[in-house]
Amino acid sequence: MIFRTKPSRTARPALRRVRTTVAPRPLRHRLDPARVEEIPFRAGDGVRLGLTRVDSGDPGRPAVLLLHGHTASADMFLLPETRNLVDVLLDDGYEPWLLDWRGSSRLPYNETGRRYTYDDVALYDIPEAVAHIRQRIGDRPLFVVAHCIGSLTLALSLTAGLVPGLAGVVSQGVFLTPKLAGRTSLRMSVAGELMKSRIDHIPVDFRGVGLWSKYTPLFALASRGADCPDPTCQILHNSAWGSGASLFVHENLHRTTHDRLAELLGPAPLWILPHLRRIELARSVVRWNDTDLRYRALPPNALDAADRVDTPVLLLSGSENGLWLDSQRLCHEVLARRQPHLDVAYTEIPGYGHLDTFLGRGAALDVFGHILEFLGERR
Ligand SMILES: [Zn+2]
Predict the structure, then answer these.
(1) Which chain regions cross the lipid bilayer (predicted)?
(2) How far apart are the CA of 258 and the centre of ligand 1, in A?
(3) 16 Cα–ligand 1 center, Å
(4) CATH superfamily entry for domain 33-179+284-376
(5) For the chain, which end, N or C, has fewer CB atoms within 10 Å of the first or last residue's CB respectively?
(6) pLDDT tens sequence across 116-166
């Protein structure tokens, strides 16, 4: 066993202090700035997060909360270079809300400051955001569209009963039955060795790291057999932060998105891996904090508590998901067998990988229609 120690909040200070401010870096979008309301917002435990509402001018619309994946940010739903999910939701009569939870690359916590586990996201970030939105929208319907770890942590919040009464949930990539690509699982053990070498996160921006650094071997490993010469693309597309998985189907990205990858996906903290490893071994979303009573509201095993899911769920996945493989199909099968009363559907997007289901230049055409159809039937 590589991971014997628990991630510690009092561990030695981060090695590379990139940002010291907790203010989120500015969003990049092409909306009218007057319509973008950035709300001063703190999670239930006081950590400063980002919460953004896009004003549609119509106060009666159903709201849709968007949850990004780990190391991504709300920017993934706002790409100026494509027809993005926020565009599509606005045009179809919804009010988009975007949460930058503590794993966002717009926030500093992946690189510096207070460490966390996914328990904190499920217990403090998502429920507080939902409560805040509810306060603002009253009894209008509230949907959630969640990607990757945003969806996995939402699964933990949902099965804890912390976000009751949602109108529906769209989950992309992974939900209650995480299954990581084989090489990913193997290389997660390598991370323990990296941590011993005083590397505490995997950067993605080669320009920020320099040619000769302790990270050079990681980039060299990722470049093996790569078709694309861009080192940031290599470490994400070819190696998913050194894990060996693949995050997207290369040709599905717009050239501009491709060249912005280092901005759209930040460094991955290695200290989160013990929790991810435990989740992977359990093939379920499991709580990290077993003895700390603050986390007792979370179920030890979310799949075992799936009967607490009280909202319709659409499980989405690209057919070529190179990180979570067929986790969503598996989730649909398991829930159909174990919890036949739940309203759970599965839709597979042919030719898509993981991130490109939202970042892809053709996502509005190939993916977002499925989301709108699901929301439209329940609004
Ligand atoms: Zn590339």
Answers:
(1) 142-167
(2) 6
(3) 27
(4) Alpha/Beta hydrolase fold, catalytic domain (3.40.50.1820)
(5) N
(6) 999 999 999 999 999 999 999 999 999 999 999 999 999 999 999 999 999
